[in-house]
Write a structure and sequence with these properties.
By secondary structure, this protein is of the alpha+beta class. The protein has a domain at 61-267: Cyclophilin (Beta Barrel). Helices cover 14% and strands 24% of the residues. It contains five helices and 16 strands. The protein has helices at residues 7-15, 44-50, 85-96, 227-230, 276-286, and strands spanning 56-58, 64-69, 74-79, 104-108, 113-117, 139-140, 146-148, 158-162, 165-170, 175-178, 184-187, 201-204, 218-224, 249-256, 268-271, 309-311. Helix 2 (44-50) packs antiparallel against helix 5 (276-286). The chain is globular, with a radius of gyration of 20 Å. The termini are far apart.
């Protein structure tokens, strides 16, 4: 179940290997697309501040994973059952069985991932966990309400947001998938046909490694507390593993918010991608203005549109 020793190792090495560059400079520019900067666009922070109540959706308690670290920190992860239902069901089963209570963050690789779990511990899986789920790396496009980003992408025919999740999609193939943006949480696995159970998880803490898209099950994203993963000391062993177990970051407990007393549950909201406010937010990210930006970009990468999340207003 350990992603790092196999799949992420191969992905890291492959990412550093450069083939001969195309001589025709093929890409978005050669297709005729050119940035078209806009100047009369509200700042992203202004859009978020003025977004009406109806532009937000609450994260359901059964889709909020609460990780309490022994040092007092808390990491919150929104689960994505619409994209990896069996893996997410496994994650819920692991949490309810106390699988990660006493586990640890044992790998922090610079500009890549933070990974946690029981490592190589040989422990019987909790009841209800599917040992080898299907490869839930993409899903049917049908049933998703996608707001296209409107800008070219290097990894997918088209990209956008569905249910406020960053997605790549192929209209011809009728498939869609979650993308490895900052904060995305995926499932550790060995070489195929293994798909991982969800007992070992990682979060992206660096520049979006989109080459992992369609190769690993993505089960969610960090919506609060990413700094408790990204700001950890980097592991000094190969691939960012901690050499000394004393460097491991102990996990006290992992629960679903739905299993906590109602008064103690964290309550968060996400800006809805099917609302006008979201479109304005994307436009603001693509055309930064104000006193600092004298030259708006006129374009934006999918992973440079961090979906706004806020604490739910009391009452």
């Amino acid at each position: 179940m350990r992603l790092s020793a196999t799949i992420l190792a191969a992905a890291t090495l492959l990412a550093g290997c450069l083939d001969e560059a195309p001589s025709d400079h093929a890409g978005a520019g050669s297709s005729g697309w050119r940035p078209k900067p806009l100047t009369d666009v509200p700042e992203p922070s202004e859009v978020v501040a003025k977004a009406p109540a109806g532009a937000w959706r609450a994260i359901a308690p059964e889709n909020l994973l609460v990780i309490d670290l022994k040092d007092g920190g808390r990491v919150l992860i929104e689960l994505a059952p619409a994209f990896a239902p069996v893996h997410v069901a496994n994650v819920r089963a692991f949490a309810r069985a106390g699988w990660w209570n006493g586990a640890a963050i044992y790998r922090v690789q610079d500009n890549y991932v933070a990974q946690w779990g029981n490592g190589d511990a040989k422990t019987a899986l909790p009841q209800g966990v599917v040992r080898r789920p299907a490869a839930e790396y993409d899903r049917p496009l049908q049933g998703l309400d996608i707001r296209p980003l409107g800008y070219p992408d290097s990894y997918a025919p088209m990209v956008g947001h569905a249910g406020s999740w960053p997605v790549g999609y192929d209209p011809d193939a009728g498939r869609a998938w979650l993308t490895h943006c900052y904060g995305i949480v995926g499932v550790g696995r060995e070489l195929a046909p293994d798909t991982g159970t969800g007992g070992e998880l990682y979060a992206i803490i660096g520049h979006a490694p989109r080459h992992l898209d369609l190769n690993i099950a993505v089960i969610g994203r960090v919506v609060e507390g990413i700094e408790l993963l990204s700001a950890r000391p980097r592991g000094t062993e190969a691939l960012g593993f901690y050499k000394d177990p004393a460097q491991h970051v102990p996990i006290a407990q992992v629960r679903l918010a739905s299993d906590m007393p109602a008064a103690q549950r964290p309550a968060l909201e996400v800006l809805r991608s099917d609302q006008d406010s979201f479109g304005q937010f994307v436009a603001g990210r693509a055309n930064r203005g104000g006193e600092f930006f004298g030259r708006p970009a006129g374009g934006v990468d999918l992973c440079n549109v961090p979906v706004p999340v806020r604490r739910q207003a009391a009452g």
